Amino acid sequence: MSPTHERWTPHFHLAPRQGWLNDPNGLCQFHGTYHVFYQSAPAWPAPGKKGWGHFASRDLVRWEDLGEPLVPSIPEDADGVYSGSALVVTGGAQDGGDLLRLYYTGNVKYEGDHIHNGRDSNQVMVTSDDGVSLSEKKVLLRPKDYPSDLTRHVRDPKVWEQDGRYYMVLGARRSDDVGDVLLYESSDAVEWAYRGRIESTHSFGYMWECPNVIQVDGHDYLVVCPQGLPSEPTRWQNLYQAGYFPLPQGILATTQVDETSFVELDWGFDFYAPQVFEDEKGRCILIGWMGMPDADYTSAPDGLAWCHCLTVPREVTVGEDGLLRQWPVTEIDGLRGFAQPVSPSAGAILPHHYADIELLGIEGNLEMGFDGQLQLSFSAEDGLLRMAFTDEKAASGRTERVLPLAALHELRVLVDGSTVEVYVNHGEEVLSTRWFPTADTLLVTLHATCESARSWEMGGEPPRALRRFRHVAPGA
Question: Where is the Glycosyl hydrolase family 32 N-terminal domain positioned along the sequence (predicted)?
C-alpha cells in the first residue's frame, strides 16, 4: 500500500481492512459490549455474495474486528445476507441471562427482473448468548407472508420491544412503484403477524429502504431511505436520501405520514442507511454508512484495497422544535490530543489529517478551506452553507452540496484520513463526505468572525483483528 493509501485509512471511523463495507446492521450493546455489524463483501473488488462483518468495542472508540460471522448458507439466503437489526431480550437465554437476536433479510435471486419477479426476500433470525457464537438460522417470514400488492423488494427488518410486545418494520416497494413500510407484531419476537403499513399521503419515492424507529424523550420518529426522489438544488441532492418523519401520534398509531414533513438526516455526499439503538446509559445512538448506492462518484481510488466506512457514533437528541439533533458521542472527545488555535484570518497548518476542529460564536459570512481541495462557505445574505470540492482527484467525482441555513453560529469538523463530518450549530444539521487528500499535512484556511477557533490532533487507530466468529451451521 502506498503512503497516500495509508493516509486515507481512518483511525476513529470504522472501515474494513479489506473489501467492501456498506449498511450498518445489528447495532446494540450486549453484556456491556457495543456491537456493530455491517454489510460485507471481503472479496471485493472481485465478485462475491454479501454477508455481515462485525466490530466490537467496550468504549465506542477502540474496536476489534471479529471477521464475518454471517454468510449465505441456507436456501433462503443463497444470494446474500442482507441488512437487519438486533434485539436484546432480557432474560431470554436458557440460563436466564440476556439473549441477542439478530434479524436480517435473506436474498434469493432467480431469472427475472428482480423487481416484480425473479427474487425472494426472506426474513431470518439467529441468536447468541455471548455476542460471538451464533445459533442456526430460523426463517421467520417468506414472500407469502407479505401483502399481495408488493413487488419482490421487501427487506431490512428493524425489531424493537414496546409495552411488552415486539414489533418489526420492513421497507417495501409496491407494485405501483410507491415505497412504504410494513408493520408486524409478535408476542415472542419469533412468530409474526402482519399489523398494517405506514405510507405517505402522496407518492414519495418508489422504495423505502432501511426503516428504523427512533423513540427518544417521549417522541417517535420513522427513519426511511426513500429511493426515487427528484434531486433539487437545496434538497434531495443525493441519488437516494436518508431522513425521518416525526410521528406525533407514535409509531403504533400511525398509518400515514405527510411527505412534506420528511427531514433529511445528513446533507453531505456520503450518508445512507442509518441505524439507531439505545445503549445501557439510555442514549439513542446513530451510526450511518458513509457511502451512497449507485453513486456516480467513488470511494475507492485506484489501488485502494477497501471501500467505504461508517460515521462515528452520534448521540441523537430532540431539539426545542421537535426535530432531531446529532452529535458525536462524548467518548470521541477522549481521542483529543494536542490543541492549537486556528487563526480566524489565516487558519493553521495541522500535522496530520486526523483532527477535531471547533469554531464557536460565528458571525456573518465564513470561508473555510482544507488543503485547497475541500471548501466550506456560508453566505449570510442568501442563507446557504456550501460544501464544495475544487480538486477532482481528491473529490473522486464529488462536486457541491448546499444546505439552507437561517444562521451559522457553530461548526465542528472531524477529519479522519479520508472522512469528513461537519456538525452545524451543535448538531442541528450534519454534512458527511469522503475526501482523499494528497498532502502530508492538513492546511486549514479560515476567514470568519468568531469568538474562538481551535483544533485538536485526534488519536485512535484502525480496528485490529481479534478472531473469527464460529458460525454454527444448520443441523450442527
Answer: 13-328
Q: How confident is the model at residue 466 (pLDDT cuts 50, 70, 90)?
A: low
Would residue 23 show up in a list of annotated catalytic residues for this protein? yes
**Residues 408, 385 contacting (CB under 8 angstroms):** yes
**Is 474 a member of any domain?**
no
Q: Which residues pair with 158 in a beta bridge?
A: 169
Closest CA to 311 of 96, 94, 92, 15: 15
CB neighbour burial string for 400-424, b if at least 16 within 10 angstroms, e if fewer: ebbbebeebbbbbbbbbbbbbbbbb
DSSP character for 444? E
Structural domain boundaries, residue 261: 3-330
Asked if the model's pLDDT at residue 116 lies above 90, the reply is yes
Contacts of 320 (CB under 8 A, 6+ apart): none
318 with 454, same domain: the answer is no
Count: domains in the chain: 2
In a domain, 476, yes or no: no
* Torsion (CA) 139, 285, 44, 401 in degrees, nearest 10: 130
- The span from the CA of 63 to the CA of 13, in Å, is 10
CA distance 341 to 444: 11
Distance between CA atoms of residues 171 and 240, nearest Å: 14
Cell of 295: 453513486
Contact 159, 103 (CB under 8 A): yes
Note whether 56 and 145 are same-domain residues: yes
3-state secondary structure of 469: coil
Pairing label, strands 442-449, 347-350: antiparallel
Q: Per the residue annotation, which of 23, 220, 266, 371 is the catalytic one?
A: 23
pLDDT at 464: 74
Read off the pLDDT band of 303 (50, 70, 90). Answer: confident
CATH number of residue 394's parent domain: 2.60.120.560
pTM of the entire structure?
0.96
Same domain, 298 and 428: no
How does pLDDT run across 225-276, given as a tens digit for each residue?
999 999 999 999 999 999 999 999 999 999 999 999 999 999 999 999 999 9
State residue 462's pLDDT score: 80
- Kindly indicate the confidence band of residue 166, based on its pLDDT and cuts at 50, 70 and 90: very high
